[in-house]
Amino acid sequence: MPPLASALASIVVGAAAGGAVVALVLFVISGYALATPTATSSPVMPAIGPSLAGAGGAAAGALVAWTVSKPLVNAFRRAALAMMAVMGTALVAAATLPAHQLAGRAGLAAVTALCLVVILVARRVFLSDGD
Q: What is the pLDDT along the chain (131 residues), one digit of tens a residue?
């Protein structure tokens, strides 16, 4: 596989994987928030869930990008690609807010599904053996 294909695949797949983690965690949190009464909730609690979603998504995006870029031998390049995937994860995470405001939990599910489709298409386009 050419190095450019590996690099592009690591960025796209890593960003989509991180975005899927963020959207999925926010989907679960929003369902939990609907099931629990807000009168007994702590004022700090609403900030913990999205923070954990963002941190988990960034970690997942970096780890996936690092793994996909394994054919590249240079660790510095792999780390740079992982950081680009983290920035892509942040862009996808920013898209979850309007998706949730427009369509609620269905919007978050749609963002998650879109990220999974992007992963499948990117793997097919960038990582195929040319068949």
A: 788 989 999 999 999 999 999 999 999 988 776 666 665 555 555 678 888 999 999 999 999 999 999 999 999 999 999 999 999 999 999 999 999 999 999 999 999 999 999 999 998 998 776 55
- Distance spanning both ends of the chain, measured CA to CA: 13
**Cβ proximity of 5 and 127 under 8 Å:** yes
- 125 φ, ψ to 5°? -75, -50
What is the rounded distance in angstroms from the CA atom of residue 127 to the CA atom of residue 118? 13
How far is it, in rounded angstroms, from Cα 31 to Cα 125?
35
Q: How far apart are CA 61 and CA 115, in angstroms?
A: 12
Domain ranges of the chain: 3-126
Q: Which residue type is seen at 38?
A: T
Q: Is the pTM of this model over 0.85?
A: yes
Query: If you ran DSSP here, which 8-state letter would residue 33 be given?
Result: H
